[in-house]
C-alpha cells in the first residue's frame, strides 16, 4: 500500500472517528512492535527465542527451574525493559483527550496504553499486565518492581503472606482470562459504533471475539495491521501499514477536521 493510499485511508478513518459516539480500540502485539517489543508470530517473534511450553500454567507450577529461568529473565529487565509508548499509543491517548474514545481493549501486557495517557479505567487488559505479580494461592497482587528488587538476594521469590508461588500477572497458556474484564469488554463491544483494530492477527480467542461482537452488533470496523486477518472482508476501512505511522496520520486529519 503506497503513501497516498494510506493518506486517503487515514482521512476516512478520521471521519469515522469524528462521527462516532462510542469508539472501542482493540489492540494486539503489533501496536507495540514500534516500541521495540517483539510480537509472538512475526519474523523476530517472541517464540523464536523462548519456548511457549514454559509459559503454560502447568509447567510454570510444576517446575521450579522454569520459574527460576523466568525470574532471571525478569531480573535482567524482561522483554519490556525501558520501553516507551510509540505514536500509535499516543494517538489513542489523544482520542481519549478529545472525548473520542470509549475504551481500549488490549491483548497486551506491556502497560503502554496507560503510559501514553489513557486512564486505567478505560483500559481492559484481557491478558493481564506484567507490571504486577500475583500469588497463585492467596491471589494477593504485588508491584513487579517490588518482587524484582528481591531477586538481588532470592532466586525463587515466594509470597510474603502465605509462601505461595508467585507468578507475573499475565495470563499464561491454560489459564482463564480475567472474567470480569472479559465481560465488561464484551458489553462495551456490543455497544460501540466503531471498533478500530490495531496490530492483531485476530486469531487468539476469546480475545478475538471482541471485534466480532462489535461487528455483529452493527459497529463499523477499521483494521490497521501488517498482514491478513480473518475479519478483513468485514472492515469498512482496512489499512496495510505500520500502526504508529497510520495512527499519526489519522490524528492529523482528526485535528484538521476539529479545527475547521
Ligand atoms: P500476534 O503476534 O499474533 O500478531 C501481531 C500482528 O501485528 C501481526 O499480524 C503482525 O504482522 C502485526 N504487526 C506487527 N508490527 C506491526 C506494526 N508496527 N503495525 C501494524 N501491525 C503490526 O499478536 P496478537 O494478535 O496481539 O495476539 C497474540 C498474543 O500476543 C496476545 O495474547 C498478547 O497477549 C501477546 N503478546 C503481547 C505483547 C505485548 O504486550 N506487547 C507482545 C507479544 C505478544
Structural commentary:
This protein is an alpha/beta fold and 260 residues long. It has 2 domains: 1-36 and 85-127 and 177-260, TPP-binding domain (Rossmann fold); 38-82 and 129-170, SIR2/SIRT2 'Small Domain'. Helices cover 37% and strands 16% of the residues. The mean pLDDT is 95. Nicotinamide-adenine-dinucleotide (NAD) binds next to loops.
Secondary-structure map with pairings?
Elements: H1 3-19, E1 23-27, H2 57-62, H3 64-75, H4 87-97, E2 103-106, H5 112-116, E3 123-125, E4 128-135, E5 141-143, H6 144-150, E6 166-170, H7 179-191, E7 194-198, H8 209-216, E8 220-224, E9 237-239, H9 243-259
Parallel strand pairs: 1-2, 1-7, 2-3, 7-8, 8-9
Antiparallel strand pairs: 4-5, 4-6
Helix pairs in contact: 1-9, 4-9, 7-8
Radius of gyration: 19 Å
Counted beta strands = 9
Order of helices and strands: HEHHHEHEEEHEHEHEEH
Helix content: 25-40%
CATH architecture level-2 label of the largest domain:
3-Layer(aba) Sandwich
How is the CATH topology of the largest domain named?
Rossmann fold
Q: What is the count of helical runs?
A: 9
Amino acid at each position: 500500500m503506497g503513501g497516498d493510499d494510506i493518506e486517503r485511508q487515514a482521512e476516512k478513518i478520521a471521519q469515522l472517528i469524528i462521527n462516532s459516539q462510542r469508539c472501542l480500540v482493540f489492540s494486539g502485539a503489533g501496536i507495540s512492535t514500534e516500541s521495540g517489543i517483539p510480537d509472538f508470530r512475526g519474523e523476530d517473534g517472541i517464540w523464536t527465542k523462548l519456548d511457549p511450553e514454559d509459559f503454560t500454567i502447568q509447567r510454570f507450577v510444576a517446575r521450579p527451574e522454569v520459574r527460576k529461568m523466568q525470574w532471571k529473565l525478569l531480573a535482567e529487565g524482561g522483554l519490556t525493559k525501558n520501553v516507551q509508548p510509540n505514536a500509535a499509543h499516543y494517538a489513542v491517548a489523544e482520542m481519549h483527550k478529545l472525548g473520542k474514545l470509549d475504551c481500549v481493549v488490549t491483548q497486551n501486557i506491556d502497560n503502554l496504553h496507560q503510559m501514553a495517557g489513557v486512564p486505567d479505567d478505560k483500559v481492559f487488559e484481557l491478558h493481564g499486565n506484567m507490571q504486577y505479580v500475583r500469588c497463585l494461592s492467596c491471589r494477593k497482587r504485588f508491584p513487579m518492581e517490588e518482587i524484582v528488587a528481591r531477586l538481588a538476594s532470592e532466586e525463587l521469590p515466594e509470597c510474603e503472606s502465605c509462601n505461595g508461588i508467585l507468578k507475573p500477572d499475565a495470563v499464561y497458556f491454560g489459564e482463564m482470562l480475567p472474567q470480569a474484564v472479559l465481560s465488561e469488554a464484551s458489553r462495551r463491544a456490543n455497544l460501540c459504533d466503531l471498533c478500530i483494530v490495531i496490530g492483531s492477527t485476530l486469531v487468539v480467542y476469546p480475545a478475538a471475539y471482541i471485534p466480532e461482537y462489535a461487528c455483529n452488533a452493527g459497529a463499523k470496523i477499521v483494521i490497521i495491521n501488517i498482514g491478513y486477518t480473518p475479519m478483513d472482508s468485514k472492515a469498512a476501512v482496512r489499512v496495510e501499514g505500520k500502526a504508529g505511522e497510520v495512527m499519526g496520520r489519522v490524528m492529523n486529519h482528526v485535528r484538521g477536521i476539529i479545527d475547521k
